[in-house]
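User: Study the chain.
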Amino acid sequence: MSAAQDEFDQLMRSGQHRLKRTQSDDECSNSEEGASPEITTAQQRVGKSRDKIPKTRYQANTGPKGVISDAQDYADSRQRTQNGTRACDSKDDDDFMRKWRIGRLQELRSGRKAEIEPRQWGGMPTVDGERYLEAVDQSPSGTVVVVFIFDDRSQVSTVIEGCLRNLARRYADQTRFIKMHYCEAQMERAGVPALLAYEDGEKFATLVPLIDELPEEGEVSPKTVEAVLKEHNVLR
């Protein structure tokens, strides 16, 4: 091979080498230019995501500024929680007060109705020892409780009972009449019919036997029995 041929071959090899290097540089350049928009987009996404990072990330930062920031975020979160709790407590208090006012209003209305319409008695039911004590001790203040002690086998007792029933209807707004068998009252039969009167749990009249208080002459009637009871302040 001649020297000229050697020189030509060397030039060709050198030219091809430069061509390959230029192409390689162009490819690298194109690669960098093509990647630039992607890198920019990725950076934008990272930037946006940083904007969306929640502030309430306790102990997520380091250094004095990070600690202060975390502390402030924690305080803000706790304040929001307390405000929510106070709002719930306030709602519960409002509900309680509303129910209390409704209940209190109903109580006042019931009391006012009781004052306007006094309790009516009007009858004379038979009672045992327990109901006798209940009537004497638990009747409204100022109510006179008349206890008739009867004998179901005595005609006189039956007549006086009829008179008392008449009076019970007439004085129903202020006097409560009940009756009790003499055996239940543990009284001697010779002392009946009898009458006891109570007010506010205290006995203030004892008519035993009741027949001794009636006029000797004249018939036994609601009028004569009424006069006797008024004389002893049982009826007013």
Remarks:
- Residues 9 and 209 are 162 Å apart (CA to CA).
- Residues 34-117 form one domain.
